[in-house]
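Researcher: I'd like a candidate sequence for this fold, 130 residues long. If you have to choose between options at a position, lean toward the conservative one.
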């Protein structure tokens, strides 16, 4: 039994299709590598744009805001002799500042990487929710 690729008939067409497919696969892989490098270069402030890097950055920003608020309140309490009251107020102010920082950072990250085409983003504003 002979191999149809050796006959010079339909086999030539198959090899052209195979080489075309291989070229398209190689181009797609290059595009994916380029997109991955572009995404890693998009990191804000020199941070890595991996998910773990984002989580660590957001968590540290949140904790830092709380600690700074509590520290300022502690120092003011010691200077003014008011007990824990200024520290408690500044702790809450630091918490609010931390929430604000995290929401701003997440909004910036969401702008930098839009959702993939065809993803379901929920109902539009003009749709009725009846």
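Model: Candidate sequence:
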């Amino acid at each position: 039994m002979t191999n149809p690729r050796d006959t010079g008939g339909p086999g030539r067409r198959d090899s052209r299709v195979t080489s075309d497919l291989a070229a398209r696969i190689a181009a797609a892989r290059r595009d994916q590598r380029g997109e991955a490098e572009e995404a890693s270069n998009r990191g804000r402030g020199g941070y890595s744009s991996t998910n773990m890097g984002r989580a660590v950055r957001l968590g540290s920003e949140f904790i830092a805001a709380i600690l700074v608020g509590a520290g300022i309140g502690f120092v003011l309490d010691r200077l003014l002799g008011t007990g824990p009251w200024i520290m408690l107020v500044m702790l809450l102010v630091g918490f609010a500042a931390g929430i604000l920082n995290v929401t701003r950072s997440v909004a910036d990250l969401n702008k930098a990487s839009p959702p993939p085409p065809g993803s379901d983003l929920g109902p539009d504003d003009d749709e009725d929710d009846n």
